[in-house]
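Now for a concrete sample entry.
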Amino acid sequence: MGVTAENMVEKYGFSREDQDAFAAASQHKATEAIESRRFRSEIVPVSVPQRKGDPVQFIDDKQPRPGTTVEALAKLKPAFKKEGTVTAGNASSLNDGAAAVMLMSAERAAALRVPVLQA
């Protein structure tokens, strides 16, 4: 994905400064959403057993980096091309994730008394 990001930078002319500013703002928004528990009802906690000790509970996205600044991002070196502008700080992170979706008609949801999140 990093090389693809570099290709998009070349195609659309995004500056390094624009990328870093967008990345810092995105980190701030993600941190704010986690701290305000904005998506708490949409996240299912996952318990991961350990060889020793209690299971580890994951209840939030671990990727956001609170306190990320444009100044700190500007110090990072390109990650995918020697003369590139995409860095570990302004690129998407290498994460795994999962999602689930339940689809049904409005009538079926009403019959089951399931709240409809999106119509």
About this structure: The chain has a mean pLDDT of 92.
